[in-house]
Amino acid sequence: MRNINHTVKFTLIELLVVISIIGILTSILLPSIQKARMKGMSAVCKNNLKQLYVSQLVYSDDNDGRVFATEYGSEWTMVRTWRDLNTGDWKDFYDGNTGFLEPYAGEEDSKIYRCPASSYDLDSRFVNAHKGRSYSGFTSRNWRHPYRLEQMHVVRTGTADFRDASRKPFFWDYNAPLDDDWWMGSGFEIHGNSGSLNLCVTDGSVVTAFLPTANWSRLASGVWIPYLEKAIGESAY
After folding, report:
1. Dihedral (CA of 44, 47, 49, 55) sign
2. Strands (E), 81-233
């Protein structure tokens, strides 16, 4: 019996149709995949903030109910000294060789300190100065000392805000001007540069705070108050 070999041939038009369909499906699916990816990374970011909050509570239990989260990037997580405002003296958090949160949240390279939904150049000043950590506090860095949670208030905005609020901004995603190449490098983004930032509140909740990217500069912090009030549902005054 003779074997009949049928060779299937496609016309050029058929191939172009198939390629077009694949292109259409790809254009439909890629945004959805990217959106799902960003949501997943944002969820990890929120979990990081939760873990850092728990670490703060453990530190607080060991240190007379005090906490610590200053502004100017994430340096508060790794500073080794604090200033006694009564005497003006600088004191070690531990032995002078260990960062503030590291006994509770892990060593310097722990992923808990970095938002996975943020990207920046590995050779940027930000990475060199802050070791890639990306969560910033709200109290003035010149106040660099632990204080009781109920005494905490936001001074980064120029005035002592949220002093009497029951829920206060604690720490959140680091933000900087989008054109701040000197610090972050080129092409960086935080949560897709959508203006949404994860914010840990002093009651342990993590909320989404919307802040227009035009106001991400530290110099624009005076206009943050309405956005922070909306995010946590408390008045700053």
Report:
1. negative
2. 81-83, 90-92, 118-119, 135-137, 147-148, 169-173, 189-190, 196-201, 206-210
Eight-state DSSP code of residue 86: T
Please state whether beta strands 206-210 and 196-201 pair in parallel, antiparallel, or not at all (unpaired).
antiparallel
- Phi and psi at 141, nearest 5°, equal -70, -20
Residue from 41, 168, 51 nearest 101 by CA: 51
pLDDT digits (tens, 9 = 90+) for 119-135: 777 787 777 777 778 89
> In whole angstroms, what is the distance from residue 109 CA to residue 121 CA?
16
Neighbours of 145 (CB within 10 A): 17
Average pLDDT over residues 222-228: 88
Q: Is residue 173 within 8 Å of 135, Cβ to Cβ? A: yes
How does DSSP classify residue 18? H
